[in-house]
Amino acid sequence: MASALINVPARARRGEIIEVKTLISHPMESGHRRSQLGALIPRDIIRLFVCTYNGTEVFRAELHPAIAANPFVVFSTVATESGTIAFHWTGDNGFSVTESVAITVG
Amino acid sequence: MGPLCAAASALAVGALVMATFAFAGEIPRSERRSGYDFMSRETRAMQDDDSANPGLLWVLEGEGLWNRKIGTAGRACADCHGDARASMKGVAARHPSFDAARRRPVNLEQRINVCRTDRQKAPLLAWESRDLLALTAYVARQSRGLPIEVAIDQRTQPVLDAGRAAFHRRQGQLNLACSQCHDDNWGRRLAGNVVPQAHPTGYPLYRLEWQSLGSLQRRLRNCLVGLRAEPHEYGAPELVDLELFLMWRARGMTFEAPAVRP
Amino acid sequence: MKRPTSRRQFLLAAGGAVAGFGLASVVHVKPARATPAAMQEAIRKVVGPASVNTGKVTLELPPLVENGNTVPLAVSVESPMTEADHVRTIHVFTEKNPLPDVVSFRFGPRAGRASVATRIRLTDTQTVVAICELSDGSFWSGSAAVVVTLAACLEDV
Q: pLDDT (tens digit, 9 = 90+) per residue, C70-97?
């Protein structure tokens, strides 16, 4: 049950640089930890985060085990037009989550 | 080294430890500080920003659970309690609170489970399970900004006294009492960390050490393990006794759940 | 004459907790570490034969970290972020984590600013390095040193 919190202004002026904050629940199991019996706990992480703006990719992050649990990524994008900003996280064990927000640009 | 020498050096070491260990007694009300005040600027910023605080992820999940019909009664929390923002306001800041049926104070997690079994006719949620943490976080969030105020009367006084006694009792292989760190030596360093005053102002909270949200009982059990004492089982009356005492000790302080702590 | 090894010395050698207080009953087995050489190799993979200039990249990390599990990181590169002149990628590396790569960010002119923030894990006191590639193919780097401490009382899971 992965939940995500996204913070994007609902409205912006055309050409304004807006800040996007994203937070998603995921243990980001590094693959380096051992259980009490000494067995290696297998890696289970989010590997890719892509942001698209009305279908065009505007930002991408490739994550490795050194990203802290419940990955938090803040980036900027230019408010070019009204529409949908979508966020897609994919990772180990078929992890795939998509969220989107609407933005009004005037 | 002869036995006399060993005893003398042990005494000398003991005296040195005593000298560096302050005995301060109960913290004066004006000097009470939340664990928030002992954190770095960055960790405080993490707590303050609802877009950055991972505890809010559990609050979000809890909101979903609040509205979900479950159990043989087919009832959601919302069916009885409506909008949590109104009905749950102040509830977390007043727990543990006395439960007449059980004739004991219960903490928030237990209160949620009472509703689940008695009213929703659904199975208990396991301690530290995702769903219980999410519901607790959601309910606790509705008390954010309010003062902590647990009711102490003739029914809860004995439990408060038991909690206070536990707080002052030496235990574990390290033979330390909670008060020795948290009343007498707060603000000083233990290895890399600053010793806080141990006020449960922010539970359930996101602990960086856990990389997860967790309950006050989990934190208390951690401390007991740190003292090399046998940690009480989740839900044990000894833990609820201590929770009640700690919330009473923090009375009037601002509730800040879901907090972030190192 | 055989010198007895004290329990504390053994545990410290095995990579156990820093302080004598609150030692966990489970000794944390430290994973194999990357070395500064492994980090250089990881950087080489990204940069290829090009040389890396120092500058333009601002990497912000707290100098002293309360918990290595979650360390806030911010990195930004001065750039007009136009079609003609922008930051293509920023890569972050560590010298002592088990793996040298941390994260790679890809930008374009639509980013507005080449500025990101995230939270990373650091297993030990070390230097973190950020390398950026500009649209003209040049590489620039910045770094920050971080002190990482262990929690005083470790949890017995």
A: 999 999 999 999 999 999 999 999 999 9
Give me the residue from C64, C150, C156 closest to B225, CB to CB. C156
Answer yes or no: is the ipTM higher than 0.90: yes
Name the residue among C25, C67, C152 with its Cβ closest to that of B191: C152
Beta carbon pairs, B and C, within 8 Å:
70
d(CA C91, CA C80): 19
Question: In Å, what is the CA distance from B222 to each residue of A38, B56, B228?
Answer: 21, 23, 10
- pLDDT tens figures, C17-62: 433 334 344 444 455 566 788 999 999 999 999 999 999 999 999 9
Strands A17-24 and B193-194: unpaired
Q: Structural domain of residue B94, as residue ranges?
A: 55-141
B177 and B237 housed in the same domain: yes
Burial B168-182 (b: 16+ CB within 10 A, else e): eeeebebebbbbbbb
pTM of the model: 0.88
CATH number at residue B163: 1.10.760.10
Establish if B57 touches chain A: CB-CB under 8 angstroms: yes
Q: Which CATH number fits domain A4-31+44-105: 3.40.1190.20, 3.40.640.10, 3.40.30.10, 2.60.40.10?
A: 2.60.40.10
The tally of domains found in chain B comes to 2
| Same domain as B114, residue B186 | no
